[in-house]
Specification:
alpha+beta; 4-stranded mixed beta sheet; 3 domains; Immunoglobulin-like
Length: 549
């Protein structure tokens, strides 16, 4: 039987990697899985990346013997491997830099990132991964700040202050009521009079608030509807109670309209006006003006009180309050140290300031010594002679002894608010840090710019891209274990390629990580310390020559 003559339609693979890459193909963003570096609209686009991807095609063709045996891959596969290699290098370098800078960056501003890991809409934070961070003790400083608060020597968390008006005979004072309740607003009252329509028509009532707003209300006997500028009267003829109701309705309409920050209520013929601004600032407004006797001003604004001056802490109603100090103020007592004829360089006797006096009335002392003695005397009075102490029971501050007519009129409480680890508190200087950098994920690090990768990095990228290419080629050839040919079969090397690719990738990652771990800022500092010690020990062996002049 005659051997048949085979005439294949092609003597080359249908899919075959070309010897050189095409710059046109490399410039096509669709030829990359992500297109991070090839897309000209991104911040990390770089024409040199395109050239690098083209060169990688020829590098792969030569390393895998494409001129001997076809490589069943396309340029797109090489471009994908090259892009992934650059991103992998960027990933490992960013982790390394995160180890170096996270401690000092804690609490700093973070950013928003797009699908490629690039910052979106924030040029201020760009390229932070390439900057040398300023060492600032980071979390250790936060620990120190908190320790300073607890020991009473500083810190950045706010310390608030409130005053307590002491009442003779009252020993307990509700701290929660003083600190967290709404401040008392100033109030005023006017009394509506029983008038006829003819007596009040077109008369005006002008009211002012603490924010310098004012509204002139006109009494109109043609309507019973009150508005933000009109007081209806048609239904209040000779009816003071209805007149008061209409006045209150007009004032509340002005508050709703935003032209007056005062609310009003009525009871019988009396209208009570309440400032929207709490505290004593409302007391300064004393102008309620009327054109005639349509109403009587019973009282101008007064009664606004405020024992606690500080941020509104009602949002922290469930937080614990830590009392730091309770104290009262008296006139300074150092004047008693110097006495009636006292002064610098003069001395008193044991009867005027006790053990703080000098030993001899004949001794002339320097001014600084007098000052130190006076300060010690003042401190002794403050510490030993206050005669008051306190304890806290069930949110009540109990003063010992019970206040009397001779007691101080006010006592002051310094306190802080205990908040959760992730909460913010009014007035705190580190509120912004709560929403800033807290771990590696919020560091504003983006993909490394291709142009900032040096020769060391570029060679690692080529080698890693080649191992990724071997993995893809192994996956392709693994579709068929053997290819039958007339009288024989060809075994493909898919398993060998996959094994080599896995081993090479692991080695390349480990190589880069090992080198970077030896170059952390901490390791560099240790190396410099060791070098300095070695140099010092070397110099100790060198004899010092005697200088002869």
């Amino acid at each position: 039987m005659a051997v048949p003559t085979l005439t294949p339609s092609s003597t080359t693979s249908a899919v075959r990697l070309p010897e050189t890459g095409s710059i046109t193909s490399a410039q096509t963003v669709a030829n990359y899985p992500l297109g991070v570096y090839a897309d000209s609209t991104t911040s990390v686009y770089d024409a040199s990346f395109i050239s690098g991807a083209v060169d990688q095609v020829n590098y792969t063709y030569r390393k895998l013997g494409g001129d001997v045996l076809d490589i069943e891959l396309t340029q797109k596969n090489i471009f994908a491997a090259y892009e992934e290699s650059v991103l992998e290098y960027s990933y490992i370098l960013n982790i390394h830099q995160a180890k170096n800078s996270l401690g000092s960056a804690l609490g700093g501003p973070t950013g928003s990132f797009d699908q490629d890991g690039q910052l979106s809409g924030s040029e201020v934070l760009s390229d932070l991964g390439l900057r040398l961070p300023r060492f600032n003790y980071g979390y250790a400083k936060m620990v120190g700040d908190r320790t300073s608060i607890e020991t009473g020597i500083g810190g950045i968390s706010p310390i608030y202050s409130a005053s307590i008006d002491l009442t003779t005979g009252q020993q307990d004072y509700d701290l929660d009521n003083i600190i967290r309740t709404t401040e008392i607003a100033a109030t005023a009252t006017i009394t509506a009079l029983s008038k006829t329509a003819g007596e009040v028509n077109t008369r005006t009532l002008t009211i002012y608030d603490a924010e310098s707003n004012s509204v002139q209300f006109t009494i109109d006997n043609t309507t019973d509807t009150s508005t933000a500028t009109i007081i209806g009267f048609s239904n209040a003829n000779s009816n003071a109670t209805q007149f008061a109701t209409n006045i209150a309705a007009a004032i509340n309409a002005a508050k709703t309209a935003g032209t007056l920050n005062i609310s009003a209520t009525s009871s019988d013929a009396v209208v009570t006006l309440t400032m929207s601004t709490p505290g004593t600032s409302g007391n300064s407004v004393t102008d309620i003006a009327v054109t005639d006797s349509a109403v009587t001003i019973t009282s101008q604004f007064a009664g606004g009180e405020n024992q606690y001056f500080g941020p509104d802490l009602r949002n922290h109603a469930n937080n614990r309050i830590m009392v730091r100090r309770v104290y009262f103020k008296t006139p300074h007592s150092m004047w008693r140290f110097y006495g009636y004829y006292g002064g610098l360089n003069s001395v008193g006797n044991m009867s005027t300031y006790g053990m703080f006096a000098d030993d001899s009335t004949f001794e002339v002392v320097p001014p600084w010594q007098n000052k130190m003695q006076a300060m010690a005397y003042e401190d002794a009075i403050y510490t030993r002679n206050s005669h008051y102490s306190y304890e806290i029971k069930n949110n009540n501050l109990r003063i010992y002894p019970r206040p009397t007519l001779g007691s101080p009129s006010k006592m002051y409480v310094e306190f802080s608010v205990e908040v959760g680890a992730f909460d913010t508190v009014s007035g705190s200087l580190d509120n912004a840090a709560r929403t800033g950098i807290n771990n590696m994920n919020t560091l504003p690090f983006t993909n490394l710019p291709y142009k900032k990768i040096n020769a060391i990095g570029k060679q690692w990228i080529r080698r890693f891209a080649l191992s990724l290419t071997k993995e893809m080629l192994g996956q392709v050839r693994g579709k068929f274990a053997t290819i039958p040919i007339p009288g024989e079969s060809v075994n493909l090397n898919a398993s060998d390629l996959l094994a080599q690719a896995k081993e090479e990738q692991e080695k390349l990652r480990e190589e880069l990580k090992t080198v970077l771990d030896e170059m952390t800022y901490q390791k560099l500092a240790e190396q410099e310390a060791t070098m300095a010690k070695s140099v010092s020990e070397t110099f100790q062996t060198i004899p010092n020559f005697i200088f002869t002049g």
